[in-house]
Amino acid sequence: MAKLLLAEDEEVLRMLIVDTLEDEGYEIDEACDGQEAYEFICEKEYDLIILDFMMPVMTGLEVIEKIRVIPSKQDVKVMMLSAKNQQSDQEQVLNAGANYFISKPFSPLELVKRVEEILSEGK
């Protein structure tokens, strides 16, 4: 079973994503801000980290920048969710070390499909 971390400050959206992914059999830890996400990442191993771009305390971008300098975390797959969907925003996120970008709003089925694709890469 794949282990995921979801960091999303909007509680309703976080609950929707967690319910959707748990229904697909994924084990998920939840964080409501960037600092909490960073602490989870430092303590545990994940197959995929899903971060919201705009979160309190620490943004998703800041989380990526902090974890990419940790040798044991450099290869973990990271997906960024964001309503900031300009090309320059996407480039900034990918240049910081995210592997994938999904624009909000998105459908839960789209997210499940992307998660499945990401986790099947390299198998």
The CATH fourth-level homologous superfamily = Response regulator
The dominant shape is: globular
Mean pLDDT, all residues: 93
Any idea what the radius of gyration is?
A: 13 Å
What CATH first level would be assigned?
Answer: Alpha Beta
Give the spatial strand order of the biggest sheet. Answer: 2-1-3-4-5
Structural category: alpha/beta
CATH architecture: 3-Layer(aba) Sandwich
CATH topology call: Rossmann fold
Strand content: 15-25%
Number of strands: 5
Describe the sheet with the most strands: 5 strands, parallel
* Topology order in helix (H) and strand (E) letters: EHEHEHEHEH
How many DSSP helices? 5
Characterization of the model:
- The protein is α/β, with parallel strands linked by helices and 123 residues long.
- The chain has a single domain, classed as Rossmann fold (3-Layer(aba) Sandwich), CATH 3.40.50.2300.
- Helices cover 44% and strands 20% of the residues.
- The protein is built from 5 helices and 5 strands; from the N terminus they run E-H-E-H-E-H-E-H-E-H.
- The protein has helices at 11-23, 34-43, 60-67, 87-96, 108-120; strands at residues 3-7, 27-31, 48-52, 77-82, 100-103.
- A 5-stranded parallel β-sheet has the order 2-1-3-4-5, with helices on both faces.
- Helix 4 links the parallel strand 4 (77-82) and strand 5.
- Helix 2 (34-43) runs parallel beside helix 3.
- It is globular and about 30 Å long.
- The model has no long low-confidence stretch (mean pLDDT 93).
